[in-house]
Fold:
Amino acid sequence: MTIIDPHTLTGAYALHALSDEERAAVDRHLADCAACAQEVEEFGATAARLALAASTPARPAMREQVLQRITTVRQTPPADTTPMRAGRALRGGAVRWALAACIAAAAALGGTTWWQYGNAQDARQQAAQAQRQADEVAGVLSAPDARTRSAKIAGGAGTLVVSAARDRAVFVTSDMPAPPRGKVYQLWFDVDGTMRSAGLMSPDRASQTVLMTGATHDASGVGITVEPAGGSRQPTSKPVALLSMPA
Amino acid sequence: MKEAVHIGPHPSSKPDLQQLVHEAALGDQDAFAAVYDAVSGPVLGVVRAVLRDRAQSEEVAQDVLVEVWRTAPRYRPELGTAINWILTLAHRRAVDRVRSVEAAAARDTKAALLDRTPEYDEVTEQVETRLEQEQVRRCLRTLTDLQRQAVTLAYYRGLTYRQVAESLSLPLGTVKTRLRDGLIRLRDCLGVTA
Structure:
């Protein structure tokens, strides 16, 4: 790619269909282009309607879990700056026809922070999430009731660590061969003979520690399969390993 | 432009969600519970549309809802309604998850994309909010086939427009245009004013 033309990317931007580089270019442009910012805002609201149409009820247990989690999450302080967004001053249908004038408008409108979640905040959130996961992993591994079970897996080794009190499990691997190109190792809980996904392993690390997704109390065992990138809803191949839950 | 018909309620029309988010931002956990009740369905729905995997979707949806609590003090009503803020965040997180998994895998892009070609019916088969769904469905029908495919692949499957171009065997520029034109039609049909 040579030049990113932000004008024509408003649709892809609002649908989160851009690479990070393109997204950043559009972000910079939106700061200077009121009409584009207006259009992106309307597209965002339109996309929200697509989300509303896909609404699906959550399990009651999820409500309890979320409401429990927030009791331990500290809220961010309000932002101390109040940047104005460019599009706010311009309203109405006429603005839609003003796209061509975007560049001309740039000088008149100062630099602004457009998106509620900029890259810096994304990075902080990712760091916070990584920290939470690391805390959870440490919690399971150091739990007084932690039980382990090990197995040879595809030439490497895997150890399952379960804490019943925490209702969580961690899977530790060493020297696992890389999955075939385009494939990924997926972890499963065996719940009454049905496999419930417990997350994906990183395909490019032979040794890793994975916090398994979901509760352990209803699981009788853990399986690992090779699945297409992105994972599967149900296992599509024979497990490379099956472990019963440690007693 | 044809006057948009508004069928049935949807969360963005509830006047109190803004207020509830404001109260949650002040640390009111009961207010957040009410926010949860108003938005958890759409949040989970959009995340699951993109991720499909039930367990992963629930994990991401939970993270999104906790993030809503955590960052509520930073929410600024002048930048858009609360429901738009929350659903934009939910879609972004779902897309981030899909891409991080995909980026980590040296995958056969073409095969993976073909495997993921969506049907709109499949996305919405479990939809509860029938009226909202009906209106969106009706408006999606006003798009050309290419516009509709491009928009649904990008939004409901979390594809980049490059991946959309690849899976529909279209030039990049065409997909860019189709996405924008499709959203313009949808916007006008749904009567969205932002």
Observations:
- The mean pLDDT of chain B is 82.
- DSSP finds ten helices and no strands in chain B.
- The CA atoms of residues 143 and 182 of chain B lie 6 Å apart.
- The longest helix of chain B spans residues 29-51.
